[in-house]
Design brief:
863 residues; Immunoglobulin-like; single chain
């Protein structure tokens, strides 16, 4: 963040250099002057960040670990120098539920860690996501369906739209990668891979039945304008989301006159131009027709607008030509060009109906550029993304001196690397990560990206990119056209132009985190119908964190406008924490009277911690959960577990593998911070969890303990004996609870096997409370008991040494070597040394990193 003096100096530099500052100047140009100044200052005042994770492998088995190296860079320059010092890495399961979260300290733009996969988890497609809290302020997409379900009208914390959006939004700018996680290997049955494909929770409206072939239209520039030349991109997929290539595609009139024959260019994408002959017929009298496999499908074309601006861009290797068509526009038009959020060109266009301009790519940096046409009040009339690729990157090479043609079992392996900048100069003291894996058990996925494709392309647009490395293979006309279609169809705007220009206000949900903190707000706890308010007078907050060595962090702070914030020293792992708010006069009374209140007592103060809520999990793309086929068959044997169906069409519940499992105290604490501060009970907590995770609210909830042996909810019959009632009350004392585990039981679940979403229908949720030992109670405490999560403890990758003794059992390591922190010597060289497993005949070597001046480099080769 720039200081005040730097901002003032930058402001005057921009004013002096602005091209419209000559006198005389119109009022409209003065307004545009202000917009341009805001654009130029926004990135300096609010620099965005990007995260990329390099992994040790492309798929995993239960009982293995996912290892990763994170590179955190400035989004504009790609230089690994960011203000944030805390990185969040989340692991979500197939159902879209958070399994584990790691926090890491960012040092020199880097950190590393791992997730262990215990076999108590279900196999499936898991998503790993990484972000800083600051990244969650940009490009948020609220989920209207969840907002309607969660938004209250009772004066609670969740009565404010901004609080609900903060907890229920998708954030496309974060890093995301989906991995297949297979069942644990039993009896050395390699390379068999088994996984039960489980349905994924749909957090949006239940979708209507789709046609066999779906077509979407994307007018270039965002608008289809009546009676001017327009270009429209189209995308064709089947109802499962798979790219399809129909035999015939054409535009025809309602009288069956063919106006155009269309062709798919890449990944089911293509374009067609709307010209004068379309307008003579009338667009409402035309449709797109697909004829394939003796079937015919018709799709209405988009409805045109009577006024606006249409864009057409022709992308060449050395030049970008832009045509702008306008209709019924009375105010002057202006155009801006941004790269990485930074303005690189500005121009006044006037009010002509047809304008042309060109950009020479020599003057542009490589990466995604955003072209925006707007008026003097900042209203966007058209915008367009395009990509410039110059092949400017550092180079990492594998030296040939130690490379072997064969890899005997358990033999030592050695590889040497050299790193050079884009000019061929050796790069000393450069950090990078290396993974070596067994090619024989490699999965062939469509998500084979790398640090270059991610930082330059994937992080700039929304949605999954099918084989992103394809767009960097060549600069021939077909690759350029395919890349431009990607910009037109998946061109989400990472940089919100109107927010940067000051047309819309920028109110970040999270500040830049530079250390671990405990912060939040103290409210006056309301009655069941009262409004939640802050105390009129400031109160005191006490925070205690208990460390294993007996040391206790104990701090007291007076609130400021109801808010508090404790800075915590750099610690690792999970630790019990107690937090309490009180007024000075009632402190002693609160402590003395605690034992008389019981488990269901609520304090007068509602302490809501301001935690970093994970963004909403995405719905998987078809190609994220399917592999490439070799000669029409999958390379490995993969099978789906058989489903044992009991009476009434229910699948049997396997209590050893829950869909989610939370520490009981942690579950209460999360519901509390989410905003459900009222009526925290053993029956309400599962309901809150179901709502928070976006599950179908028509679900039937069953609450039980002892893996279903003792059922508590729905309530037992009224004729139940008093001894039974007392027993149930004892079972459900708060102090006895250890974990709450959830199980989703669909009616006729077998028909969902292989589907990617749970669309609708009534299904059961079993919430099973596990109990502590009979004499193991939680200690009495003052305040709310919760946990403080420090940085993830460092774990070293296991690398065996077979120089002394060979193993007694076969070594089937999938990842043969992993090191997230290798540094080159003074000559830009580095070497690695490890031992082979018992079966590997061919190795895949993957190395990735980024230089100090923001040049990505990568290596992916087979030896």
């Amino acid at each position: 963040m720039l200081n005040q003096h730097s901002v003032i100096i930058l402001y005057f530099i921009i004013r002096i250099s602005f091209p419209l500052c000559a006198s005389p100047i119109s009022q409209e140009e003065k307004e545009v002057d202000s917009l341009y100044q805001n654009l130029s200052l926004f990135s300096a005042l609010h620099p965005q960040e990007k995260v990329y994770l390099h992994f040790d492998n492309t798929s995993y088995f239960m009982r293995e670990s996912i290892w990763y190296k994170a590179n955190i860079v400035n989004a504009e320059t790609l230089i690994p120098n960011v203000k944030s010092k805390v990185l969040y890495v989340d692991l979500f399961n197939q159902e879209g539920l958070l399994v584990k979260r790691n926090r890491h300290y960012i040092e020199e733009g880097m950190c590393s860690g791992s997730f262990h996969l215990p076999d108590t988890l279900n196999a499936g497609y898991y998503e790993v996501r990484a972000y800083t809290a600051w990244m969650l302020n940009f490009g948020r997409i609220p989920n209207a369906h969840l907002i309607r379900n969660i938004l209250h009208e009772d004066g609670s914390l969740l009565s404010e739209l901004k609080n609900v959006e903060k907890r229920t939004s998708e954030v496309p700018c974060i890093f995301s990668r989906v991995f297949p996680i297979y069942n644990a290997i039993e009896n050395e049955e390699y390379p068999t891979k088994q996984m039960r494909t489980r349905p994924r929770i749909n957090r949006s409206h239940p979708k209507k039945e789709k046609q066999s072939i779906e077509v979407k239209f994307y007018p270039e520039g965002g608008h289809l304008i009546e009676k001017v030349n327009n270009r429209i991109a189209f995308e064709i997929r089947d109802k499962e989301g798979k790219v399809t290539f129909p035999k015939y595609i054409f535009i025809e009139t309602n009288t069956n006159i063919i106006l155009d024959t269309l062709h798919v260019i890449h990944n089911g994408w293509g374009t067609f131009d709307i010209e004068q002959r379309y307008w003579e017929v009338g667009l409402k009298n035309c449709h797109l027709t697909i004829a394939d496999q003796n079937k015919r499908y018709e799709y209405l074309l988009p409805t045109p607008e009577k006024a606006g601006v249409a864009l057409q861009a022709n992308i060449d290797k050395n030049q970008i030509d832009i045509q702008i068509f306008s209709k019924n526009i009375t105010s002057p038009l202006f155009i801006s060009l941004q790269q990485g959020g930074k303005p690189v060109h500005y121009q006044s266009l006037g009010i002509d109906d047809h304008l042309q301009l060109s950009f020479n790519t020599d003057s542009l940096q490589q990466g995604v550029h955003q072209l925006t046409v707007f008026n003097h009040i900042g209203h966007i009339l058209a915008d367009r993304l395009f990509f410039v690729w110059k092949q400017e990157m550092a180079l990492i090479t594998l030296q040939d001196n130690n490379i072997k043609d064969k890899h005997p079992p358990y033999h030592p392996e050695e590889y040497s690397f050299k790193i050079q900048d884009k000019n061929g100069k050796s790069l000393p003291k450069t950090s990078f990560s290396v993974a070596v894996r067994d090619n024989d058990i490699e999965d062939l996925h469509y998500s084979r990206g790398n640090i270059l494709t991610n930082l330059l392309l994937s992080s700039e647009i929304r949605g999954f990119i099918l084989s992103p490395e394809y767009y960097f293979e060549s600069q021939d006309s077909h690759h350029r056209k395919a890349l431009d279609l990607l910009m037109m169809i998946q061109g989400w705007r990472r940089y919100d132009w109107q927010t940067m220009a000051g047309v819309k206000s920028f109110k970040p949900h999270y500040p830049i985190e530079q250390q671990l903190q405990v912060k939040g707000t103290v409210y006056k706890r309301r009655s069941s119908s009262g409004e939640l308010k802050k105390w009129k007078k400031e109160v005191f907050v006490r925070c205690q964190i208990c460390y294993p060595n007996g040391y206790t962090y104990d701090a007291v702070q007076q609130t400021k406008n109801g808010d508090f914030s404790f800075d915590v020293i750099q610690i690792f792992g999970k630790h019990p924490m107690f937090i309490q708010a009180y007024k000075t006069k009632d402190k002693i009374k609160k402590e003395l009277d605690y034992h008389k209140r019981g488990d269901f007592f609520f304090y007068d103060h509602y302490v809501c911690k301001d935690r970093v809520f994970p963004p909403l999990p995405k719905q998987y793309d078809y190609y994220e959960i399917h592999e490439k086929d070799i000669y029409g068959t999958s390379f490995f044997e993969q099978s789906i577990d058989q489903v044992n169906v009991k009476k009434k069409g229910k699948i049997g519940i396997d209590f050893s593998k829950p869909d989610f499992c939370y520490d009981f105290i942690e579950a209460i604490d999360y519901c509390n911070d989410f905003g459900y501060e009222y009526n925290r009970s053993l029956t309400s907590i599962p309901f809150y969890i179901a709502i928070i995770t976006g599950n179908n609210q028509r679900a039937s909830l069953h609450i039980c303990t002892n893996n279903g042996e003792d059922e508590y909810y729905p309530p037992p019959p009224f004729h139940q004996s008093d001894s039974e009632k007392i027993r149930r009350d004892i079972i459900f004392q708060f102090k006895r609870m250890e974990n709450i585990c959830g199980y989703f039981d669909l009616r006729d679940r077998s028909r969902y096997i292989g589907k990617k979403e749970i669309q609708s229908g009534k299904w059961d949720v079993y919430a099973n409370y596990t109990q502590r030992a009979k004499k193991e109670y939680l200690p009495d405490m003052v305040g709310d008991r919760c946990y403080f999560y420090g940085y993830a403890p460092s774990v070293e990758f296991y690398s065996p040494d077979y120089n002394i003794q060979l193993p007694n059992t076969p070594d089937h390591r999938c990842t043969l070597y992993w090191n997230p922190n290798i540094r080159t010597d003074e000559n830009g060289n580095a070497s690695i040394y490890f031992y082979n497993n018992s079966t590997c005949k061919k190795m895949i070597i993957s190395a990735e990193g980024i230089t100090k001046d923001g040049q990505p480099f990568y290596l992916n080769t087979t030896k």
